[in-house]
C-alpha cells in the first residue's frame, strides 16, 4: 500500500511514521523545502524522544520518502493546519484547499483521500470534494473521500497515535470502508465508523468543545469557591468522590492550538452556541482573574518584581501557542499595567522562567535569577519541575512573600514556610 501524507507537522510526521513502520510505502509531502531539508539532515525534533526514534527509524529509508510535490498513492492523508481566522470568524481552509489542488491531478479511480485536519462540519464533502473534482479529471463517484480526525495529546503523541480509537466517516460506504481498512491495520484502538463525513467532523469538534466547556465550569466554580472563602481544589476533590461527578482542574485558562479554537468552528453555521461561546469567554477571562489575585495580594503592581513560572500552554510541553501564561506576561508588561506613582510611571518587572520553552519571543530567566528579589511568584504552568520546588529556598530568594498558584502546585508547606499563597 502506498500512502501520501500531506503536511509534516506534529500530526502529519508521526502519522507518516506510523504507516511507514507498519509496512506501507509512505511519501511525506510538505511544501516547505526548508522543513524537508531539516528533517533530512537533523531528523525529527519532538520533545518526546521515543517519538523521535520512531520517526528517525524510517526517515530517509524507502519506507518514508520526503517530497515537495504530490505523487500518485493509494491513500492521500491531509494533515495541514486549519487555523481560525478571527477577523472573518471562520476557519482558514486555504491549506486544505491547496493540498486538495495538489492531490487532484494525481488521483486515480479507487484512490482514497482522507482529511485529518480539524475542519467545520461539511468541509470534507463540500470544500475538499469540490476542489478535487474541479482540479482533476475524476468524478466524485470514482474516488474515495473520508474524514478521520486525529486525537493525539501533545505530550504523549506516540502512545496515543498507536493506541487511540479512531473515528472514520466517508462520504459513502465505500469510502468509509477504505479509510477503515487503512487505520485498522496500523492502530491498536478500535475503529468507529460514522454515518458520513460530516458526523465524524462534528464528533471531533464535540470532543474538544466538551473538554473546553468542562474546564470552564471548573474555572467558574473555582472563582465562586474563593468568593465563599473556600479553597477550590480540596472542595473539587470532595465533589469528585461522587460516581457521576468529574470536575477538571481550574487554571489560568485554556491554551494550545485546539481547545481555544475548535469550539469556534461549531459557531460557523449555527446560531445555537451560547454556552459554548460563554465557556470560551470564561476560560479566556482567567488571565485577568489571575492578575486580580496578584494585584489584591501585592496592593499595587507599580515597580514590583514578579517571577512568572511557566510560559508553555500546559505542563511538560514546550509549546506556547495561545498560552494563557504568554498572555499574562504580555499584559503585565504592557504600558497599561504600569501604575502611576509619585515619580511618574513605574513598570512591573516581569521575569519569566520555563525549563521547557526555548524559542520564545519572551526573555527567559533561570530559576534562581527569576526568583532573586521577587515580590511575587506566579505559577502559570504545571511543569513537573515546579512541583519539586522547596518553599524554604523560594522564600529565601524572594524579597516579599506573595505566591499566586494558578495550577494547584503548592501545599501546606508553602504556607508554613511563611509564604502568602493565593491558590486557584
Ligand atoms: N487544562 C486545564 N484544566 C484541565 C485540563 C486542561 O486548565 O483540567 C488546560 C491545559 O493547561 C491547556 C488546555 O487546557 O492549557 C488544553 O490542554 P489539554 O491537555 O486538555 O488538550 P490539548 O489541547 O493539548 O489536546 C486536545 C486533546 N483533546 C481532548 O482531550 C478532548 C487531544 O486529545 C486532541 O487531539 C487535541 O486537543 C487536538 O489536536 O485536537
Report on the structure:
Keywords: NAD, Oxidoreductase. Helices cover 40% and strands 16% of the residues. The protein is of the alpha/beta class and 424 residues long. The protein folds into 3 domains: 2-195, NAD(P)-binding Rossmann-like Domain (Rossmann fold, 3-Layer(aba) Sandwich), CATH 3.40.50.720; 205-284, Orthogonal Bundle (N-(1-d-carboxylethyl)-l-norvaline Dehydrogenase, domain 2), CATH 1.10.1040; 286-423, NAD(P)-binding Rossmann-like Domain (Rossmann fold, 3-Layer(aba) Sandwich), CATH 3.40.50. Strands 3-2-1-4-7-8-9-10 form an 8-stranded mixed sheet, with helices on both faces. A 5-stranded parallel sheet has the order 14-11-15-16-17. A hairpin with a 2-residue loop joins strand 12 and strand 13 (344-346). The termini are far apart. The model is unreliable at 338-344 (pLDDT under 50). Ligand SAJ binds next to helix 8.
DSSP summary, beta strand count: 17
Distance between the termini: 52 Å
Strand content: 15-25%
Number of domains: 3
Helix share bin: 25-40%
Bound molecules: ligand SAJ
Global outline: elongated
Annotated CATH topology of the largest domain: Rossmann fold
| CATH architecture tag of the largest domain | 3-Layer(aba) Sandwich
EC number: 1.1.1.336
InterPro entries: 6-PGluconate_DH-like_C_sf, NAD(P)-bd_dom_sf, UDP-Glc/GDP-Man, UDP-Glc/GDP-Man_DH_C, UDP-Glc/GDP-Man_DH_C_sf, UDP-Glc/GDP-Man_DH_dimer, UDP-Glc/GDP-Man_DH_N, UDP_ManNAc/GlcNAc_DH
Protein name: UDP-N-acetyl-D-mannosamine dehydrogenase
Domain UDP-glucose/GDP-mannose dehydrogenase C-terminal: 307-412
Amino acid at each position: 500500500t502506498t500512502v501520501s501524507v500531506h503536511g509534516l507537522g506534529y500530526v502529519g510526521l508521526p502519522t507518516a511514521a506510523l504507516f511507514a513502520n507498519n509496512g506501507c510505502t509512505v511519501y511525506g509531502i510538505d511544501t516547505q523545502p526548508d522543513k524537508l531539508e531539516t528533517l533530512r539532515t537533523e531528523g525529527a525534533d519532538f520533545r518526546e524522544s521515543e517519538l523521535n526514534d520512531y520517526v528517525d527509524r524510517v526517515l530517509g529509508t524507502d519506507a518514508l520518502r520526503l517530497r515537495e510535490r504530490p505523487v500518485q498513492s493509494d491513500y492521500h492523508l491531509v494533515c495541514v493546519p486549519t487555523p481560525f481566522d478571527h477577523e472573518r470568524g471562520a476557519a482558514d481552509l486555504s491549506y486544505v484547499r491547496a493540498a486538495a489542488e495538489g492531490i487532484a491531478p494525481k488521483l486515480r479511480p479507487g484512490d482514497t483521500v482522507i482529511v485529518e485536519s480539524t475542519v467545520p462540519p461539511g468541509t470534507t464533502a463540500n470544500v475538499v470534494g469540490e476542489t478535487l473534482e474541479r482540479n482533476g479529471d475524476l468524478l466524485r463517484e470514482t474516488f474515495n473521500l473520508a474524514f478521520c480526525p486525529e486525537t493525539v495529546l501533545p505530550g504523549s503523541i506516540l502512545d496515543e497515535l498507536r493506541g487511540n480509537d479512531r473515528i472514520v466517516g466517508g462520504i459513502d460506504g465505500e469510502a468509509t470502508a477504505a479509510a477503515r481498512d487503512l487505520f485498522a491495520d496500523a492502530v491498536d484502538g478500535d475503529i468507529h465508523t460514522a454515518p458520513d463525513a460530516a458526523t465524524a467532523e462534528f464528533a471531533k469538534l464535540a470532543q474538544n468543545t466538551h473538554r473546553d466547556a468542562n474546564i470552564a465550569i471548573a474555572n467558574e466554580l473555582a472563582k465562586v469557591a474563593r468568593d465563599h472563602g473556600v479553597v477550590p481544589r480540596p472542595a473539587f476533590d470532595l465533589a469528585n468522590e461522587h460516581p457521576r461527578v468529574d470536575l477538571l482542574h481550574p487554571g489560568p485558562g485554556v491554551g494550545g492550538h485546539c481547545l481555544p479554537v475548535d469550539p469556534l468552528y461549531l459557531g460557523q453555521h449555527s446560531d445555537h452556541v451560547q454556552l459554548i461561546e460563554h465557556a470560551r469567554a470564561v476560560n479566556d477571562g482567567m488571565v485577568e482573574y489571575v492578575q486580580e489575585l496578584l494585584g489584591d495580594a501585592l496592593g499595587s503592581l507599580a515597580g514590583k518584581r514578579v517571577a512568572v513560572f511557566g510560559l508553555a500552554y500546559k505542563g511538560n510541553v514546550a509549546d506556547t501557542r495561545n498560552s494563557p501564561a504568554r498572555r499574562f506576561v504580555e499584559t503585565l508588561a504592557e504600558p497599561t499595567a504600569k501604575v502611576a506613582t509619585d515619580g511618574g510611571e513605574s513598570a512591573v518587572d516581569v521575569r519569566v522562567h520555563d525549563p521547557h520553552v526555548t524559542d520564545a519571543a519572551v526573555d527567559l530567566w533561570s530559576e534562581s535569577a527569576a526568583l532573586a528579589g521577587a515580590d511575587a511568584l506566579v505559577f502559570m504552568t504545571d511543569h513537573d519541575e515546579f512541583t519539586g520546588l522547596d518553599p524554604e529556598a523560594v522564600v529565601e530568594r524572594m524579597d516579599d512573600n506573595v505566591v499566586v498558584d494558578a495550577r494547584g502546585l503548592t501545599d501546606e508547606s508553602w504556607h508554613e514556610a511563611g509564604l502568602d499563597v493565593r491558590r486557584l
